[in-house]
Every structure is written in structure tokens, then in C-alpha cells.
Amino acid sequence: MFECPMEVGKSYFIRTLTMNWTGRVAKIVGTFVVLDEAAWIADSDRYSEALAGPIDRLTHTEIEPSPRPVGVNLTSVIDFVEYPFALPRVAK
Predict the structure, then answer these.
(1) How far is CA 74 from CA 14, 24, 29, 44, 46, in A?
(2) Which domains does the chain have, with CATH numbers?
(3) pLDDT digits (tens, 9 = 90+) for 29-49
């Protein structure tokens, strides 16, 4: 059985092998976490700065919100951190 330490209902900043995501965990199915209010973070600027406040406040950050839930394969996750700020919903 695969266990995921993320919790349904909580928001996270997730770094994978090739992408960064923000989103609220809607469900965990096998090795996938499904994110509501997901956004692909194409450029997060400095990682420490991205985690210090809402990511959309940063000047050089690129954000692409998804209009639908996104499934992220947990086997590609490098790390994740709880994201206690409003999730970015506007493209930048």
C-alpha cells in the first residue's frame, strides 16, 4: 500500500521532477494526488521567497492556473510544503 503524507483539504506547494504546482488536495487515489484550484508555477523565483508569502506577489513569477482539477503522480514528487496562503488563480 502506498501512503501519502499530504492531507485532503490542505493546500500545498509541490515540486516534481519537471514542474511546480500549488493546489488544494481533493483526493488521493493510488499514487496520484488530485488538486483543486491547481496552478502550474512555471517560475517560482527564489524558493525561499516563494514560500514566504503568496506566490503571486513576486515580480518574476509565472503562474498558469488550471480550469480543472489536476492529477500529480506522487512518484514524481521531489518535495512539498504546506501552502497557507490564498491559492493563485490569475495567470501571470
Answers:
(1) 10, 15, 10, 20, 23
(2) 11-82 (2.30.30.100)
(3) 999 999 999 999 998 888 899
